[in-house]
Amino acid sequence: MKINETFRAELDGAVLCWLATVDGDGMPNVTPKEIFTVHDEETLVVADIMSSNSVRNIGGQPRACLSFVDVFRQRGFKAAGSARIIAQDDPNFERFAAGLIDLAGPDYPVRNVIALRIEKISRIWAPSYQLFPERSEGERMAEAFRRYRVRPNAE
């Protein structure tokens, strides 16, 4: 499935995503990830900085899901598909890892790349979109700022 511009823009603005995998016994594992990006029109890449469980799980069961949400706009996306591990000794490592290494910087070495080939993309909406469809994005954001007790940056 191809990544559209809306998905790409919202992913580029996300600061955290969650990667869901399943172990050999069927036990789910969901972990937050900070270093992730679009690799090509059908593939997301995530840095394995300290993701031993995710890497092990994908080695046994490649089905995975990545989701991200803008907590202030109260929307995001879920991308599900088949993941593979690209190790440093793989001839494709540099090509897949380049954007991740730039994001990680020198302090966080990328051990492997988790490449998720997307088969399905779903929109994530907060319940308020159905309960209060008349609210504007600004109103939703103001409510989220109030609820989370934060203030918007005055840039």
Entry summary:
The chain is α+β, with helices and mostly antiparallel strands and 155 residues long. The chain has five helices and seven strands, in the order αββββαββαβαα.
What are the salient characteristics of this protein?
155 residues, alpha+beta, 5 helices, globular
Give the SSE map.
Layout: H1 5-13, E1 17-22, E2 28-33, E3 36-40, E4 43-48, H2 52-60, E5 63-70, E6 75-87, H3 93-104, E7 112-125, H4 128-131, H5 137-148
Report on this structure.
It comes from Tianweitania sediminis. Pfam families: PNPOx_N (PF01243). This is Pyridoxamine 5'-phosphate oxidase family protein. With 155 residues, the chain is of the alpha+beta class. 30% of the residues lie in helices and 37% in strands. It is built from 5 helices and 7 strands. It has a 7-stranded antiparallel β-sheet with strand order 2-1-5-6-7-4-3. β3 and β4 form a beta hairpin. It is globular, with a radius of gyration of 17 Å.
Largest sheet: 7 strands, antiparallel
What is the percent of helical residues?
Answer: 25-40%
* Radius of gyration, taken over Cα atoms and rounded to an integer in Å: 17 Å
Q: What would the average pLDDT be, to the nearest integer?
A: 95
> In terms of per-residue confidence, which ranges show pLDDT below 50 for 5 or more consecutive residues?
none
Number of strands: 7
Overall body shape: globular
- Biggest sheet: strand arrangement: 2-1-5-6-7-4-3
Q: SS-based structural class?
A: alpha+beta
